[in-house]
Amino acid sequence: MSDYDLAVIGAGVVGVSTALWAAMRGHRVVLIDPAAPGSGTSSGNACTIATYACLPVNDPSVLSGLPGLLLGSNTPLSVSWGHALRHPLWMLRFLANCRAKPSSRIAAALAGVLAHADAGLNPLIEAAGAGDLVVARGQISVWSTRAGGQGAEAGLIRRRDLGVNWQEMTPEQAQEAEPGLRLSIARAVHFPDARHIRDPEALVGRFHAAFLAQGGAHLSQRVLSVAQQGERVVISTDADAVTARRAVVAAGAFSGRITGSGAENLPLGTERGYHLMFPGEAARVTRPVGWGEGGFYAVPMARGLRLAGTVEIAGLDAPANAGRLAYLKRRGQEMLGPLPDPDSSWLGFRPTLPDSLPAIGFAPGSDRILHAFGHQHLGLTLGGITGRIITDLAEGRQPNQDIAAFDPGRAFS
Ligand SMILES: Cc1cc2nc3c(=O)[nH]c(=O)nc-3n(C[C@H](O)[C@H](O)[C@H](O)COP(=O)(O)OP(=O)(O)OC[C@H]3O[C@@H](n4cnc5c(N)ncnc54)[C@H](O)[C@@H]3O)c2cc1C
């Protein structure tokens, strides 16, 4: 049974970023995950360092538009009714957080942590020599209907009030910036401070290599449970047991399956999302372009074009929904014109608490077990800063930002 300063459970972008931060600060760290680093939800996302994305899915417009969103077949949101009925509390809390007051509170908390996202990520990019994977061309959001563009106004104003930098583009400017768009553009907005990653799985792989180079250890085992015993945490896996002074649960949407961690008592759900990959088609766009009405992004990547997004409320074990992939292909062609057959499709699991805020901090009742999950649509963006905050907490230091909103022991609605 080896003994470490810190054990990090889960090698997604959040876990690997945490492990690298802690190793860079000189701690003896073990990362535990049976899967390859960054191969889970962290691999298939829309690649965007979305520092502008402080508005949660919990938005008052969700309540007013709910019937249309749920009953239409051509919408970016789909709900498994069986799943919703089995988990009514998560759904009710999620909807309760769509009311104006909680939605504003959530947006302010997200804006607060997003303001530190680059400061958490950039040192890792530098330590990992991964600058070649990062592209700084901003992000463009387009709406193809007048109603959609007008509907976005309130949210854009809220973002500006929260310090997000965005610039209105004329439809002509947007078309000139992204000539591959085949939509009729009613409104376009540029977020110049956003960046994107040419291959998020490769980014996490580079962070992982830097972690090993710093002397970090990796155990390819599945964690079953954790237990605090005095000044140590015992982490039991399917093959072994490891002890550490502190343990971090960073297993994304699967965190609640690790018993004894406190995560099993939190209302962690998942917003499932999909992507399609089109090799050789990366030049269709020059930066991530989000289509408001479509609910997805077109992203130029190292190995092709990725269409990624949509939200499906369903369980972790339900099979992929072919209808959602057909939606992406159909709407992708509306956005970009005819596309060849994709070479691959993917389903991923955004870890989402009902208030769309991550859990970052000590597990309720523990001074040894930390939680670092629930990053919903923003894990790639917030992995770095989460790692820095968790390392501060593990060292007994006060993070240089207010993290009260992310307390795992908070009320969720
Ligand atoms: C379609 C889509 C688009 C997205 N676009 C963006 C975007 O553009 N920008 C952005 O910032 N975010 C985006 N996201 C969100 C982002 O991808 C996630 O928030 C992020 O990947 C979550 O990272 P994670 O490390 O928490 O979880 P994961 O990447 O899921 O990693 C969890 C790890 O834990 C491991 N694990 C699970 N159980 C155990 C166990 N018992 N023992 C040990 N290990 C275990 C898994 O094997 C996995 O490696 C998107 C998500 C989706 C689905």
TrEMBL record:
Among Pfam families, the record links this protein to: DAO (PF01266)
Q: Quick one: a GO cellular component term?
A: cytoplasm
- Domain FAD dependent oxidoreductase residue range list: 5-393
Q: What does the record give under GO molecular function? A: oxidoreductase activity
Q: Which InterPro entries match?
A: FAD-dep_OxRdtase (IPR006076), FAD/NAD-bd_sf (IPR036188)
Q: Where are the transmembrane segments?
A: 6-24
Look up the domain of life of the source.
Answer: Bacteria
- Any idea what this protein is called? D-amino-acid dehydrogenase
